[in-house]
Write a structure and sequence with these properties.
Elements lengths: L15 H5 L2 H18 L4 H4 L7 H14 L5 H6 L4 H4 L7 H16 L5 H18 L4
Helix pairs in contact: 2-4, 2-7, 7-8
């Protein structure tokens, strides 16, 4: 985020990103759109197959994780305990194609959000880091 006024916080500072996302309700909308894209996009078939048939828990986990990751309450830790994203995905074969499919779903979900374009751009760049850290082959 460009700082246009002295003292204005950037995305990633404190709860700035959490608030820009619309809090927990906004994050849940993003996650629902993300999993909707994963179920519909042919490019995402391989990563969809890595998930259980019922995506309710996956939606809950990602929503809770993003809540804390974006500077809000640590909902994931409250319910599921601590997490290491690469370790949590180590049992899955994730290469560049799977990483890119995940990011495609997220990019399309972000496009559907009523958020500032600079926040969407910031978020996809930020999410690219853990997506790459989950890659464990190629």
């Amino acid at each position: 985020m460009q700082i246009s006024e002295p003292g204005q916080r950037q995305y990633g500072d404190g709860d700035t990103s959490f608030l820009a996302a619309g809090g927990e309700a906004g994050i849940r909308r993003l996650v629902d759109d993300f999993y909707d894209r994963m179920e519909r996009l042919p490019e995402a078939a391989a990563i969809r197959a890595m998930h259980p048939e019922d995506l309710d828990e996956s939606r809950d986990k990602l929503s809770r994780f993003l809540c804390g990751w974006l500077g809000g309450p640590r909902r994931y830790r409250e319910k599921y305990g601590p997490i290491s994203i690469p370790s949590a995905h180590a049992h899955l074969a994730i290469g560049s194609a799977e990483r890119d499919a995940w990011l495609l779903c997220m990019r399309e979900a972000l496009a559907r959000q009523p958020w500032q374009d600079d926040f969407k751009a910031y978020l996809i760049r930020a999410l690219s880091v853990p997506a790459e850290r989950c890659r464990n082959r190629e």
